[in-house]
# Entry
Amino acid sequence: MSASAERGGTRRVDAQRNRERILQVARELVRGPGELKLNAVAKACGIGQGTLYRHFPTREDLLAEVYRREMDELVAAAPHLLATHGPLDALAAWFDRVAAYARVKRDVFAAVEAATWRDLAAHGLGPIGEAVELLLAAGRSAGDVRADAEARDVIVLIGWLSRLDDAELDARGPRLLSILIDGLRANRP
# Structure
């Protein structure tokens, strides 16, 4: 298959499998100590560096895709959670996923250049805001979420998660997100 066909979205099965494995390993390694090294990703995947560079020419390209993938999964979870939970429970379950997303966001943003960071932040705000609004709107319709709750407010309040280290996020994150859910409730006791 030609390089142009691969870029066009019709990757060979083995190439797609390599790409998925690279992203999975990079997500795991970005959480580790020190700087993410591309040769460590290639070695952990059991592939050559040339294969890695065909998929991700730079470290920033790889990290940006790790972040985008994490954000896309977070956004896609909102409608699924609404289909399987009541609105307020869906929002609470989504917040659990936000905590994991915040860890990846923090680690990726710490590893990329400032210009890449600004591009990634701008990319995430729209889709995440839409997911939050979907969850809030369902809650408002059901009478579970207060009428004045806005997606931007929630984003500002959950933004602190990416600033916490893992120990603090583990210790305080669930309680703080529970407090946020309680603050979003309509007809609080």
Q: What stands out?
A: Confidence is low (pLDDT under 50) at residues 1-8. The first helix runs from residue 3 to 7. The two ends are 62 Å apart (CA to CA).
